[in-house]
Write a structure and sequence with these properties.
Blueprint: H1 8-17, H2 21-43, H3 46-50, H4 61-78, E1 83-84, H5 93-97, H6 99-112, E2 119-124, E3 134-139, H7 140-165, H8 178-188
Parallel strand pairs: 1-2
Antiparallel strand pairs: 2-3
Length: 189
């Protein structure tokens, strides 16, 4: 029946089952964030990338980059089965010590993000005093959005690390949430 509005639940199912404007916004945001991160990593040398920052509790820029990358890899690896557990990250030292490995993975991750939304299960222990695995319902787009926000948070820390080891110029929005950028722009008017 052409022109008959869909039931709200049917409309939500339609929105989440095909590429949507929602996902295109997410994809563009991730592209921008990954481009900023990539450009900054290309300007660092290997010593700067692996330097144990005193301000970051002796973590390196490379360790923060590895963490970002491995969160996305966990999501991509769990897509087919519909199950993601971020606690099962491999913690690959090559990502945190070799910029070229990290740069290649950032490109690969971005190239592989274009998947259909689908229901997923998020698992984790979430309590260091327990072994009980807890499961939550989620979906692919929700986890992409989570990883985007998580990336921005770590980029704020990476910015601190970069400023400790280098004088390279970073974009104003590096490590800043889009809502904060919008708020600052509104306040400036």
């Amino acid at each position: 029946m052409h022109g008959v509005p869909l039931h709200p639940v049917a409309e939500l199912l339609r929105i989440y089952s095909e590429p949507t404007l929602f996902y295109m916004h997410l994809q563009k945001a991730i592209q921008n964030v990954f481009a900023q991160l990539t450009a900054s990593l290309e300007l660092l040398n290997d010593d700067q990338y692996t330097y144990p920052s005193k301000i970051l509790s002796n973590a390196s820029i490379g360790q923060h980059v590895r963490h970002i990358i491995e969160m996305f890899i966990c999501l991509e690896d769990g897509y087919i089965a519909g199950l993601v557990n971020y606690e099962t990250r491999k913690r690959d030292v090559r990502i945190e010590t070799k910029r070229e490995v990290a740069l290649g993975l950032l490109k690969r991750i971005y190239d592989e993000l274009d998947k259909t939304n689908k229901p997923m299960v998020l698992q984790g222990v979430y309590n260091e005093d327990s072994e009980e695995l807890i499961s939550f319902d989620t979906n692919y787009y929700r986890e992409i959005a989570y990883n985007l926000e998580h990336t921005i948070h770590h980029m704020a820390l990476i910015k601190v690390g970069i400023r400790e080891v280098s004088s390279i110029e970073l974009p104003d929005g590096f490590g800043v949430a889009s809502s904060t950028i919008k708020f600052r722009n509104e306040c400036a008017q």
